[in-house]
Amino acid sequence: MVLTLLGIESSCDDSAAAVVRSDRAVLSSVVEGQAALHAPFGGVVPEIAARAHAEKLDGCVARALAEAGVGLADLDAVAVTSGPGLIGGVLSGVMLARGIAAATGLPLVGVNHLAGHALTPRLTDGLEFPYLMLLVSGGHCQFLMVSGPGEFRRLGGTIDDAPGEAFDKVAKLLALPQPGGPPLEAEALKGDAKRFALPRPLLDRPGCDMSFSGLKTAVLRARDALIAEHGGLRRQDRADLCASFQAAVAAVLAEKTRRALAESEAPVLAVAGGVAANSVIRAALQGVCEKAGVGFTAPPLRLCTDNAAMIAWAGIEKLQAGLVDPADLTARPRWPLDAMAAPMIGSGKKGAKA
Predict the structure, then answer these.
(1) Average pLDDT over the chain, rounded to an integer
(2) Locate the Gcp-like domain: which residues (predicted)?
């Protein structure tokens, strides 16, 4: 039996809805970004994001259904990101999904946003379990051994900033537009990656954990030294800093990937998240896989960044396993995929952050 699910995603600053079938057909995928709303503030403002979700999500759902050529009566369930993320945004999506489920009698499936990313290669490439997933984005960076729809074992992750967050912060330091990844990569094409000897954090320690906060600070110090020496930041200086920073991130991710592949003995590495679109980083990861003799796959960019198609697919996997949620599904700001692993970035009354 082919299942058809509506997916809803609102964990950060993208309002999204999609309709996906269990035969891996993406009938529609609508994403409403909020970049213009947050640009004046140099980053995502949670309150603004939550209000925008509340205003846009129902329109996204209507568009997704129309583009897919289906109605609510044609659906088998509603899947929604119920965590982790900015709580106002997550709550907006959960309440909309609860309302649709209550009005139609459809099953409700709460999806971990990270599981959506981790299971995307099964939607795009039909990848079989098990495989190693490197989730590398603005908010997350983890190595996950994926053995089933709900079976995730974390091998390592960042102990501070995620790579995408570091890209954004470095771009801001160098007066580049936000989000920082694409403009920094474009600037790096004009630079010398060997000019600045930036650190490769945690490569001197065993394991697969990563750190990018100190690398960002090293760029800040190099920038300040250049400004003090020349009375400003010259165009070539900025390009060289971008290239050197990008090379350092690629080197760290490549080495940690090599270790994760050796530890897991996984046959395939899958990469998801916006940072996976960076050509230098992707080439470095592909090189590691070729040397190790394992496969490499990365979903297309539109399904690497936040989207609702991955949420619908993860909902399909859960529904096929007989996993549905109660009508009073709650929003969770924190929700580690591997509940048995020690917290990466601290823990509090609400649970582990990652």
Answers:
(1) 91
(2) 26-313
Amino acid making up residue 80: V
Q: Would the annotation count 209 as a binding residue?
A: no
Q: Measured between alpha carbons, how far is residue 32 from residues 49, 55, 95, 252, 338 in Å?
A: 11, 11, 18, 33, 30
The three-state (H, E, C) secondary structure of 40-96, written as one string: HHCCCCHHHHHHHHHHHHHHHHHHHHHHHCCCHHHCCEEEEEEECCCHHHHHHHHHH
Residues 6 or more apart from 174 whose CB is under 8 A from it?
184, 187, 219, 223, 233, 238, 241, 242
31 labelled binding-site residue: no
Please indicate if the annotation marks 181 as binding a ligand: yes
38 assigned to a ligand binding site:
no
328 is in an annotated binding site: no
Q: How far apart are CA 246 and CA 218, in angstroms?
A: 13
> Model confidence over 202-233: pLDDT tens digits?
999 999 999 999 999 999 999 999 999 999 99
Confidence band for 340, pLDDT divided at 50, 70 and 90 = low
pLDDT in tens, 132-150: 999 987 677 999 999 998 8
Give the bridge partners for 18, in sequence order.
7, 29
In order of their start, the domains of the chain are: 4-120+305-352 (3.30.420.40), 130-298 (3.30.420.40)
Residue 224 assigned ligand-binding role: no
10 DSSP 8-state letter:
-
Does the annotation list 306 as a binding residue? yes
Instruction: Give the closest residue to 304 by CA, choosing from 154, 75, 186, 137.
Output: 137
CA distance 81 to 75: 17
106 backbone dihedrals φ, ψ, rounded to 5° = -75, 150
The reply to whether 26 sits in an annotated binding site is no
Q: Residue 203's closest CA among 165, 166, 250, 171?
A: 250
Query: What is the rounded CA–CA span in Å between residue 271 and residue 118?
Result: 8
